[in-house]
Amino acid sequence: MAVNSKRAAVYILVVFILYVIITDPAKAADYVQIGFEGISDAAKAIGDFFTWLADGAQ
Questions:
Q1: Which tens digit of pLDDT belongs to each residue from 19-43?
Q2: How far apart are CA 11 and CA 14, in angstroms?
Q3: How many domains does the structure of the chain reveal?
Q4: 37 is in which domain, residue-wise?
Q5: Residue 32 lies in a domain
């Protein structure tokens, strides 16, 4: 039963993403840019943390 629910959730998510891309491509591009900026910021924060650890956590 959980597999069917998961499959349905993925299907709904894909349909929603396609709907947003088709109805408003500019807004979809903004969402993608926001997502990549978030990933980039998270990677930078992790790098800063490990640099801080390597420097002796001072």
A1: 988 999 898 889 889 999 999 999 9
A2: 5
A3: 1
A4: 24-58
A5: yes
